[in-house]
Amino acid sequence: MRLESTVRSALAEFKWSVSLREAGLVLLVAVAVTTVSWFLRDDGLPLAADPMGYELELAAPLTSTEKALALYDEGEYHFVDTRPVTNGDFQTIPGAFFIREASFDDDLLEYFDFMTTEDHFILFGDGELFPVSNIAARMKDRDYRNLLILKGGLDAWLMAGGEISRRNGGES
Questions:
Q1: Rounded Cα distance, 146 and 140, in Å
Q2: 8 A C-beta contact, residue 157 and residue 65
Q3: 91-108 in b/e burial notation, b at 16+ Cβ within 10 A?
Q4: Dist. CA 136–CA 148, nearest whole Å
Q5: Is 157 helix (H, G, I), strand (E, B) or coil?
Q6: Is this model's pTM higher than 0.70 or not?
Q7: Quick check: 85 and 100 in contact, CB under 8 A?
Q8: 125 HSE (CA, 13 A, CB side)
């Protein structure tokens, strides 16, 4: 009986070791096949997004600098400077209202007597479209519908020869 139990335990040990070796071999083959297929397969998605393939959704349509200059000369549009407040002197479009993202409600209240929801506005910033679009969206929420965003911001206005005035950071 002792011999029989010794034989059985030896066979059980043998089966376990064979099973472990087979499992290890299967795992090794699976890793090798996966690695080879990963190197041979074409990339499904690029690691970096191509900005030309995406369209930016803005709260108001973009307008060119040339068109903005013509509208400025006609005098039918109000210009809104959306850049953050700076200390000291800075340049802006003459007659522009200042509506900042951080002080939006207070700024809008300050100009409440001068701006109506039927007026036409061209919003501009430092060239970044997101902050300007955010302010346009907030104005739309308050029923301002005639909004345009100046493409390129104040820098594009300057390069096109647009009129500029100097202001102080403490002025509104």
A1: 9
A2: yes
A3: ebbeebbbbbbeebeebb
A4: 8
A5: helix
A6: no
A7: yes
A8: 20
Nearest Cα residue to 136 out of 73, 67, 71, 57: 57
Domain covering 62-168, topology: Oxidized Rhodanese; domain 1 (3.40.250)
Main-chain phi, psi angles of 6, to 5 degrees: -65, -40
Burial of 132 from C-beta contacts in 10 A (0-12 / 13-18 / 19+): buried
Q: How far apart are CA 41 and CA 29, in angstroms?
A: 18
Q: Would you kindly state where each structural domain of the chain is located, as residue ranges? A: 1-41, 62-168
Planar angle of CA 78, 79, 82, nearest 5 degrees? 140
In tens digits, what is the pLDDT along the chain, a chain of 172 residues? 566 666 566 556 666 677 777 888 899 999 999 888 888 877 666 666 565 666 678 999 999 999 999 999 999 999 999 999 777 788 999 999 999 999 999 999 999 888 999 999 999 999 999 999 999 999 999 999 999 999 999 999 999 999 999 887 655 5
